[in-house]
Amino acid sequence: MDAKVAQAEDGRTTLAGLARQAWQTVFETAARATLLDEESVIRLRRIQMVGALGVIGHPLYYVIWSHVFPQPYENLWLRLVCTALFVPLLFASAFSDRRWLPPYALFAITVGLPFAFIFFYLENGGSMVWAESVIIAVVILYHFNTAFATIALFSGAAAAIALFVLAGNSMGGIPWAPILLQLPVIGFVIAVLVVIKMDRQLLAEQKRRGMAAALATVAHELRTPLTSLAMTARGLKARLPTALDQDTPLRDGLMQAVARMESDLAHISNSIELLVANSKNPDNATQELFELGGVIRDAIGRFPFEQTDLELVTVDLPCPAYVMGNPQLFGLVTTNLLKNALEATKRAGKGTIHIRSEVRPDAVHVMFRDTATGVPPQVLARMFQPFFSYPAHRGTGIGLAFCQKVLNSWGATICCRSEEHVFTEFDMRFPRKGKWPEAH
Predict the structure, then answer these.
(1) What is the pLDDT of residues 180-216, one digit of tens each?
(2) Alpha helices, DSSP H only, in 287-376?
(3) For the chain, where do the domains classified as CATH 3.30.565.10 start and end?
(4) Can you name the residues that pair with 288 across neighbouring β-strands?
(5) What DSSP character marks residue 337?
(6) Are residues 131 and 180 in contact, defined by beta-carbon separation less than 8 angstroms?
(7) Sign of the torsion angle spanned by Cα atoms 88, 22, 26, 29
(8) Separation between Cα atoms, residue 95 and residue 67, nearest integer Å
(9) What is the CA radius of gyration of the chain?
(10) What is the tens place of the pLDDT at every residue in 159-172?
(11) Given Cys at both, which of 82, 124, 226, 369 links 425, Cβ 3.0 to 4.6 Å?
(12) Any alpha helices (H) in 72-145, and if so which ranges?
């Protein structure tokens, strides 16, 4: 009977687990946009809207310029190619984690907008209809990144002129007079669009500063009660063993509760510090030459390990490694990576954490490796994406993005290697510049 009950419970547990997994998959797919940072969501929506404009606009305007208001030149095959190129852009959100999406979007938009529009402009002798169409293409382009738009515009124009000549036209057949009249207008349109984007960037910077000030105020107000709670927890932890007999039934439970309280308070304090640091620009932080090993050991010494967690961590820092950066910010980076690794070992119920450094002629490497859960390839591709968390909805999703932003501000990099169910390793690379202290 007991075996049957246990088997039934295991079955229900398995079914419940499968149901949760299925629901989580559906939810992650439906809420993909919420796992992206705001800038990425906006960029993907722009790509999708341009894709929709291309898929609808090219066939529609072929009909309009061929039959409703006939123009001297139209080309069905070019319209069909442009339409086909825009179709994948409709699904940009679904392909957000694919590395080929940005270069493909650049290629498709370049062909479908500046290339096609300028080619039609040349073939139609610089007519007013196509002069206005080219301006519209420029306006659409410069709603994207300025570098993206400029590359697309110039490469599309060069390709359009080349095709115009290859199609049997001479350079003398290019409508130079309309082009010279058009260039100042296009230049002014581009200048206006760039100024508008700069104004938006200034507004975003003001919002960021306001957020930083608000977070600093909140952090200041919270630090005092959190410190008081942490001191209370430490006092309970110190006094409970002597206040309660060894045989008291609640003794172990109370001690575990106090340890959990200490851990949660430390997690909250670290999250607050991370939020405040993340709201600031790391480029503005003072930089100095500091020794990595000392900062790592200090961060480990301050970390609120639970009972035997410290036994999981081994540190291999064979020699002093000096890098340029901010030791306080690198302490937060170390704490965040250590916290993530410990959480992974708890989820897996196994694993160890190994921290090591290597001083090479051109760079200093620091590796954080855990042999816990690992991550699947699709998660690895989005590891440093702001507000993306794994498992889903666990944590704020800003920790690794913060680490990357801080390291990049020093000219350093961080990458991740992982094999699911085997290991995860973060590799931080600090370039060695100038005459820094040598390792001993």
Answers:
(1) 999 999 999 999 888 888 877 777 667 666 666 666 6
(2) 292-302, 327-348
(3) 282-431
(4) 325
(5) H
(6) no
(7) negative
(8) 37
(9) 29
(10) 999 999 999 888 88
(11) 369
(12) 76-86, 101-110, 116-123, 128-141
